[in-house]
Amino acid sequence: MFSIIFLIGLVIALGGNLLYSKALRHNAITAPRSTIAQPTLPAPTATVSVIIPAYNEAEIIELCVRSVLNSCDWSHERLEVWVVDDQSSDDTLERVQALQTDLADPRLTVLRGQPRPPGEIWLGKNWACHQGTAQATGDFLLFLDADVQLHPGAIAAAIALAQQHHHDLTTGVLTLICHCWAEWLAQPLIVGLLSVGLPFAAVNDPNSDAAFAAGQFMLFRRSAYELIGGHRAVADQVVEDVELARRIQQKGLKLSYTIAHEWGTLHMYRTAAALWEGWTKNWYLGAQRNLPNTLYTVLMILWLCTVPWLGFIYFVSQGLSDGFDWQPGIGLAIALLSIWLHYRLRCEIATISAIPTRYWWATGMGGLFVTIIILGSIVKTETGWGWTWRGRPLQRPQSTAT
């Protein structure tokens, strides 16, 4: 009886993987793609301010800043780079100040961030971004995370795209880098979930309710940024990038969400602990605290990714103990077909994220890991227990209807 139930579960998993693969393929094929090849340079009067909020980024801040300065040869009249140290507890400020001295580049300014105003709620990097924009003078504001490294021509390409199509917010999926084991398990699957849940076409459709922005790279037309109230308007938001995108759409402004591998690389989390802290911080709030939908995501990822591998193990063990009659044979065939589809899924995810298909065979473990991350995000967000970013406690949001 248990074998029959397992067979039914595997059939459902196979059907789900076929549908999931089809959806990923469609999104990958139809997604807009931005390159750097011979970009139309922005008008001579266009100026851009790059704002890099930094909190405890001593290991990587220099690479990020150098990549920005090397991405174009514009003078300081057209390009200014603001690094805002958000009161780091490591030597981020000292390192970037030393870099400023060594380079003596007039385009680079280091700002020592001030304490958060008493009586006001400023979560995450919002306060640092706000301080940077108060000093910035550019027609465009480019917000970059410190874990981004731009490629030469990236800024020119992004501004050219925004000017050509009159975009008010341009954001893109950079080349995602994975090093540690936790990244290889979680990041590809999370990219797949986000791609299906928030397709590029829906996000770019002004008539759609889907809103999304990749907070690591957000290029705003300054007039649009000020119209939506900037980071002050989302000061109490943990997932501020999505909220900024939502406000862009609510104002009838134009958002561009694109695949932009050639613009640069992004290495979001360098350790398992950082990955756990980051995604448990963001996931449930990014889903607007919709518990039924979030639990459905948990069920789907478990069923599609983990059940086929459990079925494979179960029917191999059953066949070895009782003989390979029709039930173990069919069960193994269905499980192996689903597992082969896992490789196809990773191929489609690679076209969106540029994450190689390496370790695709660990999809079963990845599904279990992502499930634990999502459940942890629900618990942390609703209770506030252990809900932090870079060790800073986050304020538990007030309960809202889901």
Quick rundown:
Helices cover 52% and strands 13% of the residues.
| Order of the strands making up the biggest sheet | 3-2-1-4-8-6-9
Euclidean distance between termini CA atoms: 38 Å
CATH superfamily of the largest domain: Spore Coat Polysaccharide Biosynthesis Protein SpsA, Chain A
Number of strands: 12
Describe it for me?
The chain is of the alpha/beta class and 402 residues long. It has two domains: 2-28 and 289-393; 32-270, Spore Coat Polysaccharide Biosynthesis Protein SpsA, Chain A (Alpha-Beta Complex), CATH 3.90.550. Helix content is 52%, strand content 13%. The chain has 13 helices and twelve strands. The chain has helices at residues 2-30, 61-70, 92-103, 126-135, 154-165, 181-197, 200-204, 222-227, 240-250, 272-286, 291-322, 326-353, 363-383; strands spanning 48-54, 79-85, 108-112, 140-144, 148-150, 169-173, 175-176, 217-221, 255-259, 264-266, 388-389, 392-393. It has a seven-stranded mixed β-sheet, sandwiched between helices. A three-stranded mixed β-sheet has the order 5-10-7. The protein has a two-stranded antiparallel ribbon with strand order 11-12. Helix 2 (61-70) links the parallel strand 1 and strand 2 (79-85). Helix 1 (2-30) packs across helix 11 (291-322) and helix 11 (291-322) packs antiparallel against helix 13. It is elongated and about 75 Å long. The two termini are 38 Å apart. The mean pLDDT is 92.
